[in-house]
Write a structure and sequence with these properties.
Elements (H helix, E strand, L loop, with lengths): L17 H18 L4 H7 L4 H9 L6 H11 L11 H11 L1
Length: 99
C-alpha cells in the first residue's frame, strides 16, 4: 500500500526554455574546448567555421544547426550527444575553485 499524499517519481521532466538550452550548450562547448587547451581559433579551424561564429556559439547567441553541432563534436572528438550532457565532475571543481 502506498503512503497517502506521497508518490514515487522516478523521473521528473521539467520544461526548459530555448535560452536555457543554448546557454547550457554554450557552456559545454566552451568547457570541452578548454579541456583540450585549444583557443577559439584552433577549434574554429578544426570545425571549418569562423572564429566569430564559434565565439557567438560559446556565448549562447547562436542557435546552431545539427550540422554545426556535428562539426564541433567531430572537431573535439566527442559524440554529438556529449554536447548535451553536463560533466558534473568539472562543475564541482569549478565551484570549488571559485570559493
Amino acid at each position: 500500500m502506498r503512503p497517502v499524499g506521497r508518490q514515487l517519481k522516478l523521473f521528473e521532466w521539467l520544461p526548459v526554455s530555448e535560452a536555457q538550452v543554448l546557454r547550457a550548450l554554450a557552456e559545454r562547448i566552451k568547457s570541452l574546448r578548454r579541456s583540450k587547451r585549444w583557443s577559439q581559433e584552433q577549434l574554429a579551424e578544426r570545425a571549418s567555421m569562423q572564429r566569430s561564429y564559434l565565439a557567438d556559439l560559446e556565448r549562447g547567441y547562436r542557435n546552431p544547426s545539427v550540422r554545426t553541432l556535428l562539426k564541433v563534436a567531430n572537431a573535439i572528438g566527442v559524440p554529438i550527444s556529449s554536447l548535451f550532457v553536463e560533466n558534473t565532475k568539472s562543475r564541482r571543481s569549478t565551484r570549488r575553485a571559485r570559493l
